[in-house]
Structures are given as C-alpha cells and as structure tokens.
From TrEMBL, chain A:
The DUF112 domain, residue ranges: 19-438
Superkingdom to which the source organism belongs: Bacteria
One Pfam family of this chain: TctA
Keyword Membrane attached: yes
Protein name as catalogued: Tripartite tricarboxylate transporter permease
Membrane-traversing stretches: 12-38, 58-80, 106-130, 136-157, 164-182, 202-222, 314-338, 358-377, 384-404, 410-427, 434-450, 470-490
UniProtKB/TrEMBL annotation, chain B:
A Pfam family that the UniProt record links to this protein: TctC
Keyword Lipoprotein tagged: no
Organism: Chelativorans salis
Protein name as annotated: Tripartite tricarboxylate transporter substrate binding protein
Residues in the signal sequence: 1-27
Length: 501, 321
C-alpha cells in the first residue's frame, strides 16, 4: 500500500498527473455549475478521450472531475437557488437566503472550504474502510435500504418547517411522479399512458432544471431588479468569513462528511439522500433550529461537506463489488472496464496503484477545485447584483440546452418546461419545491426495496424490525420525526413558565 | 469540324461523368463521414462498453469517427426503435439488446420494429448463463436444488434476467420464487452472497468477474463450452438440458432496414475485420470480456433459436412477478 501510494504520488507530481487533475477539476467545475450537466455527463464525454492515456492519468482526470463537480453545483445553488446537480439541492435551503441577505461571498467561501475538507475526510475514510468494506456492505440488504429511504423522506419534515401541510402535498406529488415508468420488480410499465418516453419514468435531471432553474428565473424576471435587493448591503468580499466559519464549525463539517461518506458507501441510496440527511441532522441537533432556512451558514456547510465526502464513500462498493453507488460511479465503472480493470475484490489486490491514484486525485481535486473557486468567488458573487433581465437571457437558454444535452432528447426539454411552470406556480403559491424532489428521488428506492424485503421474507413484515441495522435505522426515523414535536413542546412549556413568572 | 469533335468529346466525357454520378457509388463512397452508433443503454453498462470499444477500433480502421449515442430505456426497446427508424444510408448502425428486444414481440406487445427486417452485421459476444449459489450453500448440483423439497428463491435483474431464471426453473422443473428488482446483475449476485436468495441465473462473465474472492459456487453452466473459472460445474448438455444453451445475452449489431446491399456488405466486412483487431483482442484478454465474433447470418440463426425458446415459454414469461 505504501509502495502504491508512493508510485501514485510520483505519477501525480512527475508524471503529468497534476495537469490531468487540473483539467479534470476545471471541467468538473464547469459541468457542475451548468444545471443539467453533471458528473455523469462529464465522465461520459471524457471516456473516449482516455483511450490513448495510461490508466493512472485517466484516473487523475476522472478524479479531478469527480472532485470538481460537487462544488461547481453549489455555486448556482447558492447564487440562483438552482442546484447545479441533484445532490446540491440541500444547499439551497440556507445558501440562497444568504445570497438574498448579501452574504453570497460568505456562503461560497463556506461551501468551498467545506467541500475541500469533506473531500479529504471522505478519502481518509475510504482508506480506513477498504479492509472492512466487504463486511460492512453485506450488512445492508433490502430492508435496510428501505429504512434508509424512509429516513431520507423524513428529512421532508425538517425541510418544511412551518409549512408542513404544503410540504406533504408537494411530497405526495413527488411520490406519484416517482412511480411512473418501468416497474423493476413486476416487470411492466405503470402510468405511462402509451407514451414511450415515460417507460423509464419522469427523468430527475430535467425535472430539477425545470423546478429550479426555469421556475426561479421566471420568478426573478417577473419581480425584476437584481437578485440581491439592496445592493448597498452587499459585501461580496466576505469569502474569508465563510472559510473561517467552516473551521469554527468543525463539528458540523465532521458530521456532514461522516454522513456523506457512510451513505455514499451504501450502494443503492445515493448522494442526494446523504446531503439531505446531513442537513436535517444538523438542524435537528442545533440549539436554534428556527434560524435554518433563513441563512444559517451551517446549513451550507453540512450538505457541502457531505457531497464531497460521498465520492470517496461511493468508490467502496464500486471497486469492491462493481456496484455503482451513484450515477456518476456507473459511468466511472465503464471507464474502469475500458482500461482493463474488472471491478471486484480483486481490484484492491491487483490494481492497488490505480486505486491509490484515484484516491489521491480525489483528495487533491477537492482542494484544488475549491481553492480555484474561492479565488473567483468574489466575482461570482457579483452575479447577484446584475439586472435580472440580463440573467434571464443567459440562464434560460443554458438551462434548456443542459436539459437537451443529457440525452439529446427534445422530450427532456419539454419536461423541463412543464416543471418550470409547475415550479413557478409552487413559488407563486408558496409551496416548497424540495419535498417534491426528495420524494421523487426516493420513491422508487423505497418501493422496490419494500417489495423486495417482503419477497425475501415471504411476506413476513417483521423482517424490518428483526434485523439489527434495520431496527437501528427505524429508531432513527422515529427519533427524527419526534425531535421537532418534542422541541415544540419544550418551547411551549418554557414560554408557559415564563408567562407564569 | 474541330469544334464539333471537341464538343462531341466533351459531350461524351460529360455523359460518362453523369453516368458515374448517376450510378449509386454508395459502396465506394462509404463511409462518407462520421458514423453514429446507437447504444440502447446508458453509459457504463456492458452494451455500452462493448459498443464503445468496437466503435473505437472500427473508427480507426475506417478513418472516421464513430460517435456513440446512448438511447436507453425499455430494456433496449427505445434504442432499437431509434435504430430501426434511422436513415438507412450506412452512416448509422446500432447495437441491439438481444433477447431484450425479442421478449416483447414474443409477448405480443407493440414494439415499433420488426426483428426480421433489421440488417444484421454480426455480434461481438454471446454471454450464456450459469446457475450460482453462495459458496457456503448446502446445494452442490442442480439436482440438489431440484430435490430441495421447497420453493427455491432466485435473485434476478431486469426483464431478461427474470426470463432466464424462469426458463431455467421450468426446464429443470424447480419450484421457484423469483426475487426481482435488483438494479444490476452484480447487485443480484450480492443478494445471493448475503442471503436474499438461494440461487441466481446470471451471465457467465458476470459470475466470473464477481467471483474473484470465491463467494459463489457454480451449479449448472447453461452452455457447452469450457469455462476456466468454473471447471467442475456441470454443463447444459451433460446435465440433460441442451435447450438452455441457446439462452444468453447477445451483443448484436445491425443496420436499419433498407440500407443499400453493397454498403451493408462493406459494413459487415469492416465489422468482422474490426473484431479481429489486435487492440480488441487485447482488451478482451485484459478485461476477461468474452468475444465470440459472429457474422450476420450466424447471428440471425442464433436469434431465431432464441426466439423459438422464448416462444415455447411464452406463458411463463407473461406471468407478472
């Protein structure tokens, strides 16, 4: 292992690795920033370019992309209320309110520093977990996946504070959309109404583009002016403040990174859940939960740390079992195979140098991408001072082209437009949009694993509670649903006492 | 006179030129620029990997760029439809998910393509199946499984996987329960290792790649070939189930109907030549990827025998899970 590390480090410094890493990180940043384009697209475009490269260089390039994308995606989430990639959706909760308050620089700084530290942490965890990865993964079967998905859904309860009913309505809509398309368990299609396009369900990314990018830009256009309403209050030079906040709030960073790396390592749940869980846990254990959603910097730090840590975690099942932990990893798996590596336990034995190159490049890419972005964060933050009339002309076409670029499908653009209208109506009538996305994303994970669990146990539903990990997850769900109620009760009780006094 | 002769000559030359233009010089002119390759799955999977490596080698040999286009969905049906309706000018070819595209036809569903009209170029590989159980399973042969005395659970991925598991159970007469819904073949195998299911019918190459740590045990190779990683496992023929050997995933390639026969022949020759390329052989050896080069006619015959087997089990396939 030390040999492999030394070899990779040599390749990074002397063998041109830095060059590929830098290119990868820049590509990753750009693809992360543009809604619709994300890690999977960037990696898929890159596959043919790596044919002629040696494997180590290809790993540096891929690692650069995977390290750069998560932070790129947070930039638009913070500045425009539009997550660049699905896992950045949790960042908008507090990132965008900070922008509205003129603290965009601080939010970007916090996101950048949290990404870098989260990425490093994920990599360290990956190194530590490699020897026991197999055993950990075997602990998770369909009942556990089901419980994890429900835990993710319970994040809705946190993300809708004050608007619970509306949040549940949005989530219900999301669940209904989630069940459209091919039924993986029963093998048939549902709710497709004879439309071929719906066979694979309503695609998540065009939906996100519509709900966030299109809806947001329409809403901004109609309200006019600039995103930040009081330009004189804007202090875009507070990037340093954000970075310092990350070091001050180190427990939040560690918590976010741990959740990200752990959830990322469990195949079948995905990074979007990780970011939401990191956020909701942070809110729940905070002393002042009411400040979240109104520009609390911890609300940016937790999901961003989780996002970058997730990549390290997601590599574990990808390498050890050939099971991709995310869409990005699925494409990455194809890249590995093209370069003559069959993922499986053997990769860890036979290709340790490649694995360490990848780990190193992931670590450096997180830091590199963040530092680079922090340098331009001031300029990026100025976007919020631009007259919205100009922004519309740029963002709307880019968003729709992004929707098209994914599969070269015009239908995807239509989906983005339809959800743009839905999203605008939701803004207009004050319905939260994130519960819809969470439910849409988790609905099928939850359903498939619920049905699988019951098939495996032959209809015995106690399977969800008789397995230790599943039971622990169930207790966590109960806890996460009860905490807000208990907190509310305590507050009422205290207020009552104060009044008496 | 001189002028007249010149004119005649010019006219003759013109006539020749026009004639040359009029004859469809398709085969000489092919390929006339970049060629699109429709891949019926998202990037990263088996069909994608095979398609891209072929595209690279073929493109280098022809001196053009082969541009992969992933059109995923409906177990390969959407890609097949796009390929079927592509312009038949020899500038678009596709990889087809067989038996994914046969199954809906057998079940009498509306597909939007006619398999008999696809102009088959050939196939890269024919991945047959194997029945596996966990390494510590009490079952050692397919006969043990048959004699289990209770329904045996099988993990399966995708509609082709469910079909393969069902056909095995019916052919061998095992009472089985299919656990479906896994997001990939490796996930279904992991399900066997962690005890979700007792057994699984999975492509041999998937089992080989997954089994580097010896988590799995082979019970029946649904092929007559020797498989180095499962040397002692019984084969379809000797176990008395020869029909099972015609089942498998075919990495098939074809052109939309209506391509000029000369162009089609030139394309098929180029395809077969690419399959012999050293780079492709090297890739297959490095990655343990199977290569069974097959020309258009051989592929057609294999597709026919698969269709026959699937048709025989039409009722079994139509069951919902």
């Amino acid at each position: 292992m030390e040999d492999a590390l030394a070899h990779s480090f040599h390749a990074l410094v002397a063998g041109g690795g830095v060059f590929y890493l830098a290119i990868g990180a820049v590509v990753g940043l750009v693809f992360g920033i543009i809604p619709g384009l994300g890690g999977p697209t960037a990696l898929a475009l890159l596959i043919p370019l790596t044919f002629g490269m040696d494997t180590t260089s290809a790993m540096f390039l891929a690692g650069g992309i995977m390290g750069g994308v998560p932070f790129g995606g947070s930039v638009t989430a913070i500045l425009l209320n539009t997550p660049g990639t699905a896992p950045n959706a949790a960042t908008v909760f507090d990132g965008y309110p900070m922008t509205l308050q003129g603290r965009a620089g601080a939010a970007l700084g916090a996101a950048g520093a949290a990404s870098a530290i989260g990425g490093l942490f994920g990599v360290i965890l990956l190194l530590l977990a490699l020897p026991i990865a197999r055993e950990v993964i075997l602990f998770f079967a369909p009942p556990e996946f089901f419980m994890l998905a429900v835990l993710g859904l319970s994040a809705i309860a946190v993300s809708t504070e004050g608007k619970l009913l509306r949040g549940l309505i949005a989530a219900g809509l999301g669940l209904m959309i989630a069940f459209v398309g091919y039924d993986d368990v029963g093998s048939g299609t549902r709710f497709t109404y004879g439309v071929d396009y719906l066979w694979d369900g309503v695609p998540l990314v065009p939906t996100l583009i519509g709900l966030f990018a299109v809806a947001q830009i329409v809403s901004l256009y109609l309200s006019g002016g600039a995103i930040t309403k009081n330009p004189e209050e804007v202090e875009v030079s507070r990037v340093g403040e954000g970075v310092r906040a990350v070091f001050r709030e180190w427990p939040t960073v560690l918590r976010g990174s741990s959740i990200g790396a752990a959830i990322g390592a469990i195949p079948g749940v995905g990074g979007t859940v990780a970011a939401f869980l990191a956020y909701s846990v942070t809110v729940q254990i905070s002393d002042e939960p009411e400040t979240f959603g109104k520009g609390n910097i911890k609300g940016v730090i937790a999901p961003e740390a989780s996002n970058n840590a997730r990549e390290g975690g997601a590599l574990i099942p990808t390498l050890a079992f050939g099971i991709p932990g995310s869409a990005e990893m699925a494409v990455f798996l194809g890249l590995l195979v093209l370069h003559g590596m069959q993922p499986g336990p053997a990769v860890l034995l036979n290709h340790m140098d490649v694995v360490t190159s990848l780990i190193l490049s992931l670590a450096f890419a997180s830091v590199f991408a963040s530092v680079m972005c922090l340098l331009v964060a001031r300029q990026l933050a100025r976007i919020t001072l631009i007259d919205v009339n100009y922004l519309v002309a740029i963002i709307l076409p880019v968003a729709l082209v992004g929707a098209y670029a994914l599969n070269s499908s015009m239908y995807d653009v239509i989906v983005a437009v339809i959800f743009g209208v839905i999203g605008y109506l939701m803004i207009r009538f004050d319905y939260p949009r994130l519960p819809l996305v969470i439910a849409m994303f988790l609905g099928s994970v939850m359903e498939v694993n619920f049905r699988q669990s019951l098939m495996i146990s032959r209809g015995d539903w106690t399977t969800f509670f008789s397995r230790p990990v599943s039971l622990i997850l169930f207790l966590l769900i109960v806890l996460s649903l009860c905490v807000p109620a208990i907190r509310y009760g305590i507050r009422k009780f205290r207020e009552g006492k104060e009044q008496e006094a | 006179m001189e002028l007249m002769r010149k004119l005649t000559r010019a006219g003759g030359a013109l006539a020749v030129a026009v004639a040359t233009l009029a004859v469809p010089a398709a085969a000489q002119d092919w390929p006339s620029g970049n060629i699109d390759l429709i891949i019926p799955s998202s990037p990263g999977g088996g069909f994608d990997t095979y398609g891209r490596i072929l595209g690279k080698v073929l493109g280098e040999q022809l001196g053009v760029q082969i541009v992969p286009k992933n059109i995923s969905g409906g177990a390969g049906m959407r890609g097949a439809q796009a390929a079927y309706n592509a312009r038949p000018d020899g500038q678009t070819f596709a990889t087809f998910n067989v038996p994914g595209i046969i199954q809906p036809i057998v079940l009498g569903e509306e597909t939007g393509y006619d398999i008999d009209k696809i102009d088959w170029l050939g196939a890269m590989a024919f991945n047959q199946y194997i029945v596996v159980v966990a390494a510590d399973s009490p079952y050692n042969t397919i006969a043990d499984l048959k004699a289990a005395g209770e329904p045996v659970s099988f993990s399966a991925y995708g509609s082709s996987g469910i079909a393969a598991n069902r056909i095995l159970c019916n052919e061998v007469e095992i009472e089985c329960q299919i656990i479906s819904g896994y997001p990939g073949n490796n996930d279904a195998l992991l399900g066997v290792v962690r005890g979700d299911a007792v057994a699984s019918v999975t492509p041999i190459n998937t089992a080989t790649a997954f089994n580097t740590a010896g988590d799995l045990k082979g019970l029946l190779l649904m092929t007559d070939r020797d498989v180095a990683d499962f040397p002692d496992t019984e084969k379809a023929d000797s176990a008395g189930y020869p029909a099972l050997a015609s089942l498998g995933l075919i990495r098939a390639f074809g052109l939309p109907p209506g391509v000029d026969p000369e162009v089609s022949a030139a394309f098929e020759a180029a395809f077969m030549k690419a399959l012999e390329a050293e780079e492709l052989q090297q890739w297959a050896a490095d990655t343990d990827s199977q290569l069974d080069p097959m020309n258009g006619d051989e592929l057609k015959a294999l597709i026919d025998s698969q269709t026959e087997l699937l048709t025989r089990y039409k009722d079994v396939l139509a069951q919902s899970n």
